[in-house]
Write a structure and sequence with these properties.
By secondary structure, the protein is mainly α. Helix content is 60%, strand content 0%. It is elongated. The termini are far apart.
């Protein structure tokens, strides 16, 4: 069931939104609805969104199972500042 919603926005935002909607052959109502759904999904999701760049880099370095990153970083900092 659709319900009417009145929004008060500045004129330039409305004009930009109209241009975007027209370019993508969608109504402003559909754009607003999609945005509301998107932010609702993100808020309900407990997962951290990983950027495509990070995903691309993951798994490049193959470390030994006994590698202690905290210890190695501590050694690096100690060497750097001593």
């Amino acid at each position: 069931m659709n319900t009417k919603l009145t929004l008060n926005l500045n004129k330039s935002s409305i004009e930009r939104a109209k241009k975007y909607a027209k370019k993508h052959n969608q109504s402003l109502s559909i754009l607003v609805e999609k945005y509301f759904n998107l932010i609702s999904e993100k808020e309900n999701s407990n997962e951290i969104e990983i950027s495509p760049n990070v995903l691309e880099l993951s798994g490049i370095i193959d470390l030994n199972e006994d590698y202690d990153a905290k210890s190695e970083y501590g050694k690096h900092i100690e060497k750097k500042y001593s």
